[in-house]
Task: structure prediction
Amino acid sequence: MDDLQTSEEAAFVAEDVNNIIKESIDSVLLNATYNHNKVGQWTSMVVEQSMKRLTALNKPFKYVVTCVIMQKNGAGLHTASSCFWDNATDGSRTVRWENKTMYCIATVFGLAI
Result:
């Protein structure tokens, strides 16, 4: 039982990470209108809040968090990532968020230590 509990405690739980990303984005951008002068601040805040909440989980992971904010103006944006890791322990999660004026795409990579 202890081994099962230990493995669950050390697992990358995509649903938990997804919720952390969504809540971090909402706390920064929920009532915001796109403003080019604030994008740098917003992306930093999303990344920092996500990282703070992820590390508060106290799981044996190294995290990488990225955030892109783009004005809604009809332009296309394509992203991709590739990872070489252990599928049993490591994971990633990407959240696409939008309002009337902008898109936000945030990704978390969790790598077991």
Observations:
- The chain has three helices and three strands.
- The chain has a mean pLDDT of 92.
